Amino acid sequence: MKAKLRSAQGITLIEIMTMLVIIGVLAAVATPKFQTAFEKTRFRSANRDLISTLRLARSMAITDKHQYGVYFSYENHTVTIFKDSIAPTAYVLDANDPVIRVDTIADEFASIYTDVENDVITFAPNGSAGFNGGGNIAAQGYFPSWSAEYYHNVLASTGRVRSYDSWEAWAENHGDL
């Protein structure tokens, strides 16, 4: 008895083209969602960096037993950590204060504002914060398909930073609603 030969079946050109079209459609639909997710991740990361800068200044003040400050410069688009040695009670970055670090404000921030005088928040050796104003920092980002904002509040008594992902959440915790 002879063994029957099976005909070899393969993938046809039409089946390959159909798969490529399906993959292309799926990629076209998913790409904008990936872009938005990527932008949101970068914006959240930039906010974490901002909080880390404030926490670093507080930590340095506690460790070094000397007052340190953080200065927000909108003109230069920078955040500066400095050792506040010239006029510690003035809440200002003086020309002769030693600058520890200068960071460029992330491109993800369309705007960043504080409600403190001279845009300076200082930290004392006991960890508490000093400033004239409310101790609030607002960071906003505007992207092609979405916008976002974070509000950070530095607590004067402890120097700790609380963050909120909307004005409503911030206002609810500050009795402004």
Would you mind describing this structure in some detail?
This protein has 177 residues and is an alpha+beta fold. The protein has one domain (13-174): minor pseudopilin epsh domain (minor pseudopilin epsh fold, 3-Layer(bab) Sandwich), CATH 3.55.40. Helix content is 34%, strand content 29%. It is built from two helices and nine strands; from the N terminus they run H-E-E-E-E-E-E-E-E-E-H. The protein has helices spanning 13-64, 167-174, and strands at residues 68-73, 78-83, 99-104, 111-116, 120-123, 129-130, 133-142, 147-154, 161-164. The strands form two sheets. Strands 3-2-1-5-6 form a five-stranded antiparallel β-sheet. The longest helix is centred in the N-terminal third of the chain and has 52 residues, at 13-64. It is elongated, with a radius of gyration of 26 Å. The chain starts with 12 loop residues before the first helix and ends with a helix.
